[in-house]
Amino acid sequence: MTAAEKDTEQTAAPSPKAIAAAKAFVAAHGGSARAVVENLGQAGARIVLVGEDGLLGDVMVPDVAAGEALVEAVDGLSPHEWDGETVAALKIGPAHRRKMAGPRAR
């Protein structure tokens, strides 16, 4: 096994903290959630979670492979893309919209 393969193998495993955060989100938001893994380049990957109740959460991991491994490791998470069904499942309230808009919206 080459050094590059070892690095890939090591980064493909999500941290226990990331797994715990995803499990807590699933438990708090209805027992299941959609997971969209987004590549952020050098910053890693973001797993956007959409709970059964429509609320959002996210977990950061080192790379897309770790994100996909996290989705597989957590019961109740299912992999999704940003399709119409996933977007329709969101329930974003006015307070969250203001927060996302930043200080100019306040």
From TrEMBL:
<protein>
    <submittedName>
        <fullName>Uncharacterized protein</fullName>
    </submittedName>
</protein>
